[in-house]
Structure formats: structure tokens, C-alpha cells
Automatic annotation (TrEMBL):
InterPro entries: eIF3l, PCI_dom
UniProt cross-references to PANTHER family, sorted A to Z: EUKARYOTIC TRANSLATION INITIATION FACTOR 3, EUKARYOTIC TRANSLATION INITIATION FACTOR 3 SUBUNIT L
Location in or out of the cell: Cytoplasm
PCI domain segment(s): 293-492
Any GO molecular function: translation initiation factor activity
Entry protein name: Eukaryotic translation initiation factor 3 subunit L
Database matches in Pfam families: Paf67
One record GO biological process: formation of cytoplasmic translation initiation complex
Species: Sesamum alatum
UniProt keywords, alphabetically: Cytoplasm, Initiation factor, Protein biosynthesis
Function: Component of the eukaryotic translation initiation factor 3 (eIF-3) complex, which is involved in protein synthesis of a specialized repertoire of mRNAs and, together with other initiation factors, stimulates binding of mRNA and methionyl-tRNAi to the 40S ribosome. The eIF-3 complex specifically targets and initiates translation of a subset of mRNAs involved in cell proliferation.
Stretches of the chain forming a coiled coil according to its record: none
Protein family (similarity comment): Belongs to the eIF-3 subunit L family.
Length: 570
């Protein structure tokens, strides 16, 4: 505690101005102090101090000394931490993350980062790791691991302008960032941590994983368990990047996203989970589930984003917020379940995409262009994990996966074109004959039956439990050539109304307290004056006393008057 000022200050230190020429072996005093204190706090399992240094000090030093250059090399700082192997792996993980965020990594640095993650995860999986790290850091490890895999796949797929040296390097290290290696590491962390069994036992009251946010207060380590927990979210993200949405959602089944959990303890983890969960449900036509989860996370961001303005993740939070509004606009255009959306979110949505959503209902060329635009803006950066064929003419194929997913999505949108007409007529009638509806739609009855079956198919989906669920706000059944229409009515959510009124009341009470405090301060400044004419506090108190006496007297007079009238009546 006493040494915090030595590594967590923002004032320039003499002789520590950023150098134009980067020297990997030069270690400024701030960095020396940082690694020494970080190493000590990790050995002492002081999670609070580790978190403060990781979140604040690392960013502060980076902004001040390493805005356009990497941190000192691990070999340069190793002597200050007793050449501790695990700490050096953690330091390199932060070193590469800073490099990816501030600079453009070289091909060799991409491969070196893969080697470092392999070494770090091997230690966690097969070694003895007796330390506690903040959930934020552990989440960032998994998140960055998946991000760098995605970045490497995009880099490798741009073959057209590759130099001979780069191609030779890719040939030599063909196993670096291999998709099977990435999936195997994440799955191994899930299995080795036994996190699925822990979460099952927690439902029976035998574990306290969520209640302690994954930390071990008995002196053990939280690293493997929490890495295993976040790896399930990492698997969801990787499978979404590959276009395998069903497998991705299956990986997330052990986490109950309808409840608070360890994933909600880190804002980045919370947003990433719901973004990919919602997108996967959207692509599997589970529109109601996608709308429900997008609505919840957007309400949460709306209420809490002000508390993350100083966070380095703030820009990413705002970007994902905008992307999820675009995905919500798509979901509601394909499945008009506006009743599932909170008033606050609906207001923001109308402001951002109200006009576009009206045009998307028409299903013409302009509507398809809008679906294309919103999908391209909000979708993940899909990847092609297979390595290129170096013998063929070198071409860029980094957009192939995106084009395939866009093609499948727009094909689904096109199939909804006929359904919009059916839904329009079904909203008008409670019962209508097949012949009459066929006449309105200008088709014969067999074709109409096909269209109605398509409507049933497209408005129903299979959930993660294998049950068939309906996404339609208008449904029907056919009995003796008569179509009977009924509208699904979701249960009223009175709680939302009362919560909004409670928030408004709290705002009014806060304003009253503020005005009262300002009034008391004003009276305190005038307290030296003894005259009631110059003291608003005393004057107000006297006026209140006078009013109370008048009110008391009038009340007594009124009571006596009523009593007299009652006696006269008797």
C-alpha cells in the first residue's frame, strides 16, 4: 500500500520521457517499480492491489511512456522478479496485448504470442498455479486469445500482397493459431477446471462459485476455475466466428444467462456473452430469444455506461451497444415482437433505426439493401480457419466467410417476403376461409396451403432443449377449410412500470435533498447575524411556526363549529 505512489503516478519522472528509438532492454524506473510491486502482490494473493495495478497503473504507464512503442522486453524485467517463470509468462501476455492494441504486430510477433499462450495455458493445465488473479485479467486473457486467433486468420487470408519471407514464415509455423489448437486449449480449460460440475453442484447448494465471484477465500487459487468458466464464452465466440451457431450455444448451456453470474462481474464478458448469444439465436431464427436478451443488455448498458467512461474498454462498450441496436432492429423487422422491448430501448431504437425499420418491412430491393447494411455493420468478423494453398495463384480470401454468412442471411430474409403478406391478412381476420384468403393473395388453394406451412415453419424454431417454440405474434390453425387466427399475448410486465416510477421518485428525492443542502449552507453563511430579518433560516422557521399556529387554531375553530352544528341538529 505504502509504495503505490512509486508506480501509480501520472506526473512525468525526470529522465523517463518517451524515447523516439525503442530500446527493449531499457527499463524505466516506473516499470521497475511496477513489476516489483505486481510480483509481490501476486505472491501475497492481494487481489485488490493486483486489480488496481492491472487496470490503472498499467494503462497510466502505457499512456505516458509507451503510447507508440512496446513495453521493455521480458528478458529486461526478469531480474527484478527473481526470473519467475509464471510471472514472465503473465508479463509477456500483457506485453503482446499492449502491442496489438497500440501497434501493428509483425508476423513473427503473432507467432511468438501464440507460443506464449501455449506455455501459459500449459502451466495452468498441468502445473501448480497457487495464485489469485482478478476476474478482469482472466477474462482479458481468454478474450485476447480469441481475438488474436481471429486477427491471425484475417492476416493469413490476405495472400495477394504477401512477401516471400512472410509466406516462408507461414509455411514454417503452419501450426501457429491452428483452429484445432485454439479449440483444444479452450475445451481443455473447461474440462480440467471441472467448471461444469461445479456449476451443477452450485444449483444443489453444494458450491459457492457465483456467490464469491469465482474467488477462493480459503487460500486456494481461482485461476483454473475462472479461466475454465470464461473459456465456455470463448468457445461460443469461436464457433460464431466459424458460423457454427448450434455448437456455440451448446457450449454456453452450463451458464444460466437468465441469472446473474460470474460473467456479469466483468462488463466486457457480459457484453460479449450476450452479443454472441443473441447473434447465434438470430441466425437460428430464434428471434424471440434474441430480442429478449438484446433488450436486457441494452437496458443494462443504458443504465451503467456512465460508470465506465474512464475505462479503456469504454469505446468497445459503445461500439457493441450500437451493433446490438442494429441486430435488434433486424430481429424486430423479421419478428415484430415490440412488446418484448423495454420502453427506454424502444425509444432509442426508434431514434436510431425507426425510418429504416419501416422500409425494411416492404421486402423490396431497398429493404434488402438495408438488411445487408445492418448485418454487415453488426455481424462478427467471420473467419476462414483453413490455411491457404501456397501452390495456387495467391488471392485474398479473407471476405469469403463473411460473404457466405451474408448470402445465407439474405436468403432467409427473401423467404420471409411472402410471409409478410400472409401476416397482414391474418392480423385483420379472426376467421377466414382458405378460398377467400387465396383469392385475396391471388394464388390457388394448394399454393396457399404451401405458403401457410412455410409461415408455420419460419415462425417456429427448435430451442437448445430440443423443444419447438413459436416466434409469431400472430398464429393460426386450420379446421375444415377455415383458418382460425389467434394472437399471442405475452404477460403484462407491471414491474417495469413500477421500476420506472421508483427511479423517477428517487430522482425527485435527490433533487429535494440537494435543494435542502444548498438552503442549509446558505443559512450557515448568514448564521452570524442574530436578526430574524437577515436570517432566512430563522425567518422560514418563524413563518412555519406561525403557519402551524394558524392551522392549529383554524382546525380547533372548525372542530368547534362542526360540534355546535351537530348539537343544534340533535
Amino acid at each position: 500500500m505504502a509504495g503505490m505512489t512509486s508506480y501509480d503516478h501520472d506526473l512525468p519522472v525526470p529522465g523517463e520521457s518517451p524515447s523516439i528509438v525503442y530500446d527493449p532492454n531499457h527499463v524505466p524506473d516506473s516499470v521497475k517499480s511496477f513489476v516489483v510491486h505486481m510480483y509481490r502482490h501476486i505472491r501475497e494473493k492481494n487481489v485488490y492491489e493486483i486489480h488496481q495495478m492491472y487496470e490503472n497503473s498499467f494503462q497510466s504507464i502505457s499512456d505516458r511512456l509507451f503510447k507508440d512503442s512496446p513495453w521493455p522486453s521480458v528478458d529486461a524485467v526478469a531480474p527484478y522478479v527473481d526470473n519467475d517463470h509464471v510471472f514472465c509468462l503473465l508479463y509477456r501476455e500483457m506485453w503482446f496485448r499492449h502491442l496489438y492494441a497500440r501497434l501493428s504486430p509483425t508476423p513473427k510477433q503473432r507467432i511468438d504470442s501464440w507460443d506464449n499462450y501455449c506455455s501459459l495455458f500449459q502451466v495452468v493445465l498441468h502445473g501448480v498455479v497457487n495464485m489469485q488473479l482478478p476476474n478482469q485479467w482472466l477474462w482479458d486473457m481468454v478474450d485476447e486469445f480469441v481475438y488474436q486467433f481471429q486477427s491471425f486468420c484475417q492476416y493469413r487470408a490476405k495472400m495477394k500482397n504477401k512477401t516471400e519471407q512472410e509466406i516462408a514464415l507461414l509455411r514454417q509455423y503452419d501450426q501457429a493459431w491452428n483452429v484445432y489448437g485454439v479449440l483444444n486449449f479452450l475445451q481443455a480449460l473447461v474440462e480440467k477446471s471441472m467448471i461444469i460440475q461445479i456449476l451443477e453442484q452450485e444449483k444443489e447448494g453444494l458450491e459457492q462459485f457465483t456467490a464469491t465471484d469465482g474467488y477462493d477465500y480459503s487460500g486456494g487459487s481461482n485461476v483454473l476455475k475462472v479461466l475454465g468458466y470464461f473459456s465456455m464464452i470463448g468457445l461460443l465466440r469461436v464457433h460464431c466466428l466459424l458460423g457454427d451457431y448450434h455448437t456455440g450455444l451448446k457450449c454456453l448451456v452450463p451458464i444460466d444467462i437468465s441469472q446473474q453470474g460470474v460473467y456479469t462481474s466483468v462488463i466486457g464478458s457480459h457484453i460479449t456473452t450476450i452479443y454472441h448469444y443473441g447473434f447465434a439465436n438470430l441466425m437460428l431464427r430464434r428471434y424471440v430469444e434474441a430480442i429478449r436478451e438484446f433488450n436486457k443488455i441494452l437496458v443494462y448498458i443504458f443504465k451503467t455506461k456512465q460508470y465506465h467512461q474512464k475505462s479503456p474498454q469504454y469505446e468497445q462498450i459503445l461500439k457493441k451497444n450500437e451493433q446490438m441496436y442494429a441486430l435488434l432492429a433486424i430481429s424486430l423487422s423479421l419478428c415484430p415482437q415490440v412488446k418484448l422491448v423495454d420502453e427506454t430501448v424502444n425509444s432509442q431504437l426508434r431514434e436510431k433505426y425507426g425510418e429504416k425499420m419501416l422500409r425494411m418491412q416492404r421486402y423490396d430491393d431497398e429493404a434488402f439493401a438495408l438488411y445487408d447494411e445492418l448485418f454487415s455493420y453488426a455481424c462478427p468478423k467471420f473467419i476462414t480457419p483453413a490455411p491457404p494453398s501456397y501452390e495456387e495463384p495467391l488471392v485474398n480470401y479473407n471476405q469469403d466467410a463473411y460473404r457466405l454468412q451474408l448470402k445465407l442471411f439474405l436468403y432467409e430474409v427473401k423467404q420471409q417476403q411472402l410471409l409478410s403478406g400472409v401476416r397482414t391478412y391474418l392480423k385483420v381476420y379472426s376467421t377466414i376461409s382458405l378460398g377467400k384468403l387465396a383469392t385475396y393473395m391471388e394464388v390457388d388453394e394448394p399454393t396457399l396451403r404451401t405458403i401457410l406451412m412455410t409461415y408455420k415453419h419460419k415462425t417456429h424454431s427448435v430451442d437448445s432443449d430440443g423443444k419447438i417454440t413459436s416466434n409469431a405474434d400472430i398464429d393460426f390453425y386450420i379446421d375444415d377449410d377455415m383458418i382460425h387466427v389467434f394472437e399471442s399475448k405475452p404477460a403484462k410486465r407491471n414491474g417495469d412500470y413500477f421500476m420506472r416510477q421508483i427511479v423517477k421518485l428517487e430522482g425527485v428525492m435527490t433533487d429535494i435533498d440537494r435543494i435542502k443542502l444548498e438552503f442549509v449552507r446558505k443559512c450557515t453563511r448568514l448564521k452570524s447575524s442574530s436578526s430574524i430579518l437577515f436570517c432566512p433560516c430563522r425567518r422560514a422557521s418563524a413563518e412555519l411556526n406561525d403557519l402551524s399556529h394558524v392551522h392549529s387554531a383554524s382546525t380547533n375553530t372548525s372542530f368547534q363549529s362542526h360540534r355546535s352544528r351537530a348539537l343544534v341538529t340533535l
